[in-house]
Amino acid sequence: MSPTPVSTLSPRARKTVFAAAASLAVVAGGLVWGAFGSRGAPPPAPPPPVPVTTMRVERRDVPHWQETIGTVTSLQSTVLRPQVDGVLTQVLFREGQQVKRGQLLARIDDRSIAANLDGAQAALARDAAQLRAAKSDLDRFRQLSGSQLIARQMLEQQAASVQQLQATAQANQAAIDATRVQLSHTRILSPIDGRVGLRRVDPGNVVRAGDDDGLVTVQQVDPISVMFTLPQDQLPRLRQAQAAGAVEVQALDRDAGLVLAQGELSVIDNQIDDATGTVRIRAVFKNSQDRLWPGQLVSVRVRTGTSAAATVVASEAVQRGADDSFVYRVEAGNKVALVPVRIEYQDDKLAVVSGLQAGDVVVRDGQSRLKPGMTVAPTAPSVRAAPGNAVAARVAGAP
């Protein structure tokens, strides 16, 4: 059977045949182009290096600091309250003035007490004269009794009179001493070196013994202390540091972070607060320039130890993985490798780690886009592992 010529097909059939032939031609052309034309296409460009900030690993001694918040407190604070009733006649201090121990600060009207003292002294003089006369009579009675010129009863009565007058004289002397004490209370003296606060009573007012408000408060400000708390798990390390010598403590401004004063740990409380699991601690600071003020809130840093010849990186260089910590180390060809590390000490500025060598270059910033083996475009390594480390924070007011 011979094939049917195309010319004999119907017009509709001829359109179908021509459309199928065109489709086959297009497919065949695509296959030929894919087989031969792709041989000359350039390879895809490698991804550009990832820009990162790097630093060089250091080896140096690193002090360990424990940070907390503390309150400045006076080592001695005294409310001066009147001990006698009377009119406040003089106030001899300026508010906020520095005063010395024993300095006269105020006077209370003493005229009534001085008059009582004069009366007690007069009574003592009267009784002393009577006592002298009674003793003279007793001496004569003893002579007459020896000659049996008077009854023994008279001698005994005279001896009793002398003893009675002696007791009266002692009572008068006690009254004088008590009155003198009251008189001394009309002169209000500072019991400590310190600074006076705001005056609570003005001259001319009547003051009473034991007034709750008192006249004024005197607070010792140099030296001064800071009270703070630390978690109880820090206590063994702190006790170990204390056994090795003076424990350094820094008081810092809470806003600027400047070191206001440097002192040392004074005392650790004898018990742990079971409600909070913390222990109270007092540190003492010299305060001749008044950088610390009673009641002030400050940041406190306590030196609890030192890592000698430690391997140091910036704290932000250490990344946390699912199982352990790691850093990205920059190796030959600026390719990065993931290096596991063990953290021995860390604060907000630096970390002491093991697993690296001094001089290694590690990525400090830009790790979020990295994977092992990627190429990076590092900046110049930092000079210090933790610039701005608070260990070297400058003292407030220093040039």
UniProtKB/TrEMBL annotation:
Pfam family, any one: Beta-barrel_RND
Any one of the GO CC terms: efflux pump complex
Keyword field contains Ribosomal protein: no
Domain Multidrug resistance protein MdtA-like barrel-sandwich hybrid span(s) in chain numbering: 80-219
Domain Multidrug resistance protein MdtA-like alpha-helical hairpin intervals: 117-186
Residues annotated as domain Multidrug resistance protein MdtA-like beta-barrel: 223-305
Keywords of the record: Cell inner membrane, Cell membrane, Membrane, Transport
One example GO MF annotation: efflux transmembrane transporter activity
Residue ranges occupied by any Multidrug resistance protein MdtA-like C-terminal permuted SH3 domain in the UniProt entry: 310-367
Taxonomic superkingdom: Bacteria
Cellular localisation: Cell membrane
Annotated family: Belongs to the membrane fusion protein (MFP) (TC 8.A.1) family.
Protein's UniProt name: Efflux transporter, RND family, MFP subunit
